[in-house]
Amino acid sequence: MKKSSKRIGEILIGRGRITEAQVLDALKDQKLSGKFLGNILVEKGLLSEAEVTGALGEQFDLPLVNISAENVDMELIRKFSSALVIDHKCVPLKEDETSVTVAISNPLDAVALAKLEEEANPRILNLVLASEQDIERVVGEYRKYISDSIQRLLKRKPPEASA
Fold first, then answer.
1. Which of 34, 41, 51, 69 has a beta carbon 3.0–4.6 Å from 141's, enabling a disulfide?
2. Residues 100, 52 share a domain
3. pLDDT, position 116
């Protein structure tokens, strides 16, 4: 993943989505809150999450994907640690013998990226960018899938003990 020399604010200004004054105002808020600039711009109602995700895709040269629980293989997700999926919001989408493709919403999460590299090894890691909202929805479905799996296991009758 290569990072553009342009910052997200510059990309959004260049796209005509916001003004320099709006970026400077959001940067002041960022210093106080520590939040990501894109999140602040969305919270202020200046941009949609999709616009911010698109700019991040350009900044980090990552393809954008729309994901939903319907097109996600929960068994593939189970091959990765729950910390990656739930805490770091990483959603494995597909794999083959040589590579694994994972959707992320925060390309600046160095801990997640290092863990992904480790868990994908020896396969090549292909990153794609998805909106935080899409990933949250899939993570919610993953939690439900795991809960349902545990419930099914608990309902199984234990094998009869032989006398």
1. 69
2. no
3. 96
Upper half-sphere CA count for residue 50 (Cβ side, 13 Å): 3
Task: Kindly tell me the number of DSSP H helices and DSSP E strands found in the chain.
Answer: 8, 3
Tell me the per-residue pLDDT of 107-156, one tens digit each, with 9 for 90 and over. 989 999 999 999 999 999 999 999 999 999 999 999 999 999 888 888 88
Output the pLDDT for position 6.
87
Residues 48 and 112 in one domain: no
Is residue 31 classed as helix, strand or coil in its secondary structure? helix
Long-range contacts made by residues 150-154, C-beta under 8 angstroms, separation at least 24?
none
**117 and 139, same structural domain?**
yes
Write down the pTM of the prediction: 0.84
